[in-house]
């Protein structure tokens, strides 16, 4: 497998002097192209911080993050902008859809900004929305569709630009169980069809069971790792076991 992300000895400290908080401490990890990787841990463990520094939303205090061999911490602002636009796709818990745009317009917005030709836009739109099961609601507006449909619209927008790396922050957090299952099934299909690498922060063991691999973070450090053998039910039970061994009430991990 081709390595796409390498995190080396990354530390992230917030604050200064007597009021310091260490969110990440000497974190090392590698992510290969086409992997669907989950990040789990208690509240305040550093999982969202890790996603933020990989996505360049935040910067590291020390250490390096390499994307296909290039240190993204050394990119200039215009290079960072191109990196985010061309290489990354984002799926957030709160959808971040524009209410004044239709489902179709929300999805194709990244392509329109990049000035992709209309024929190519239509082709990608059809391909992605069919996989996500939202090809029949393209003319509707966000206020006219369900939460699950909104999140699948957000997923379509994230993937339509064919990003190499999709970053998902609690994508099922605002969804009911049926909508969560639909979204995760679709994300898995997208992962396989387009070979997109997906990095997902989640507190939900059910959501995590769709991943190929789980990284558990505790107190800013990698605590453990699990690799799926393809049996999702068994993987789910193994995830629950690790969360229990991490200590504390399982509710503290939500």
Summarize the structure.
The chain has 254 residues and is an alpha/beta fold.
Write the topology of this structure.
Elements: E1 3-14, E2 21-32, E3 36-40, H1 47-54, E4 62-67, E5 70-71, H2 77-87, E6 88-92, H3 103-113, H4 118-132, H5 147-159, E7 165-169, H6 177-194, E8 197-201, H7 205-208, E9 213-218, E10 221-227, H8 232-245
Parallel strand pairs: 3-8, 3-9, 6-7, 7-8
Antiparallel strand pairs: 1-2, 1-4, 4-5, 9-10
Helix pairs in contact: 3-5, 4-5, 5-6
Give your account of this protein's structure.
By secondary structure, the chain is of the alpha/beta class. It has a single domain (3-253), classed as Rossmann fold (3-Layer(aba) Sandwich), CATH 3.40.50. The protein is 37% helix and 26% strand. It has a six-stranded mixed β-sheet, with helices on both faces. It is globular, with a radius of gyration of 18 Å. The two termini are 32 Å apart.
Key phrases:
8 helices; globular; alpha/beta; 6-stranded mixed sheet; about 35% helix; about 250 residues; Rossmann fold
CATH superfamily: P-loop containing nucleotide triphosphate hydrolases
Helix content: 25-40%
Fraction of residues in β-strands: 25-35%
Distance, first to last CA: 32 Å
Mean pLDDT across residues:
90
């Amino acid at each position: 497998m081709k390595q796409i992300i390498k995190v080396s000895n990354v530390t992230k400290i917030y604050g200064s002097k007597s009021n310091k908080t260490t969110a990440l401490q000497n974190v090392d990890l590698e992510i290969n192209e086409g992997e669907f990787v989950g990040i789990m841990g208690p509240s305040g463990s550093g999982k969202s911080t890790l996603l933020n520094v990989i996505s360049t939303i935040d910067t590291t205090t020390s250490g390096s993050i390499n994307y296909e061999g290039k240190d993204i911490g050394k990119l200039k602002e215009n290079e960072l902008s191109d990196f985010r636009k061309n290489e990354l796709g984002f799926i957030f818990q709160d959808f971040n859809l524009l209410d004044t745009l239709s489902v179709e317009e929300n999805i194709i917005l990244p392509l329109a900004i990049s000035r992709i030709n209309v024929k190519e836009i239509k082709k990608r739109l059809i391909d992605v929305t069919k996989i996500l099961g939202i090809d029949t609601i393209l003319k509707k507006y966000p206020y006219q569709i369900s939460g699950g449909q909104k999140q699948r619209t957000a997923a379509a927008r994230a993937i339509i630009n064919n990003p190499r790396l999709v970053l998902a922050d609690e994508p099922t957090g605002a969804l009911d169980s049926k909508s969560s299952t639909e979204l995760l099934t679709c994300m898995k299909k997208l992962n396989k069809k387009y070979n997109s690498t997906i990095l997902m922060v989640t507190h939900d063991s059910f959501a995590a069971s769709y991943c190929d691999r789980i990284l558990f973070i505790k107190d800013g450090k990698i605590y453990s790792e699990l690799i799926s053998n393809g049996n999702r039910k068994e993987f789910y039970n193994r995830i629950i076991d690790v969360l229990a061994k991490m200590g504390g009430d399982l509710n503290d991990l939500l």
